[in-house]
Write a structure and sequence with these properties.
Layout: H1 2-59
């Protein structure tokens, strides 16, 4: 009986380890996505500013 319990305990430890690894990967992906989002928002704002500047120049 105790062999079965030890086997289950080892399986559970492996499962927990896999889940922890997945959580770390997910957190890293979220961090990367947030950085990308911030980067593209900044770029988008630059483009909008540039478009406004060009439209003011062409209207004058």
């Amino acid at each position: 009986m105790s062999g079965n319990i030890q086997q289950k305990s080892a399986e559970n430890s492996r499962s927990i380890s896999i889940v922890e690894h997945c959580v770390q990967e997910t957190n890293q992906n979220i961090f990367t996505l947030r950085r990308s989002k911030d980067f593209f928002e900044a770029k988008f704002c630059q483009w909008i500013d540039e478009i406004h500047k060009r439209s003011r120049v062409s209207n004058n």
